[in-house]
Amino acid sequence: xxxxxxxxxxxxxxxxxxxxxxxxxxxxxxxxxxxxxxxxxxxxxxxxxxxxxxxxxxxxxxxxxxxxxxxxxxxxxxxxxxxxxxxxxxxxxxxxxxxxxxxxxxxxxxxxxxxxxxxxxxxxxxxxxxxxxxxxxxxxxxxxxxxxxxxxxxx
Length: 155
Prior knowledge:
Elements: H1 6-23, H2 31-38, H3 42-54, E1 58-61, E2 67-70, H4 79-87, H5 94-97, H6 102-105, H7 114-130, H8 133-142
Antiparallel strand pairs: 1-2
């Protein structure tokens, strides 16, 4: 199973911190403030912010009063976007990256497990596409710790 990496988790925390500060009237947030508040090294915070900026989720302003702000509204930013910008993908399928045996695992082969793994990836992506920074921000503000999205059961 593909796990959520540290950079992806931090990417979510970085965006959520900026959104929370925006909610409280602070449009611009410095990398140092994010680093301090999230207990992430400044260098790593800057690397994450660069990926998020290159992906169009945040923008930067230079200068003594500079910093970062959200380029999109919190309801437009999904967890899938953040994971894809920080990790490159949301779920890694062995058939795609590192086939066990080429004759059984290639994308052209007729493997009985391929549809399971690609189906799982689709469910993960569908879920991550539904959860937005606005959802997490509302949970943070209201101190809720409840499931954000209920996926339909197949039974």
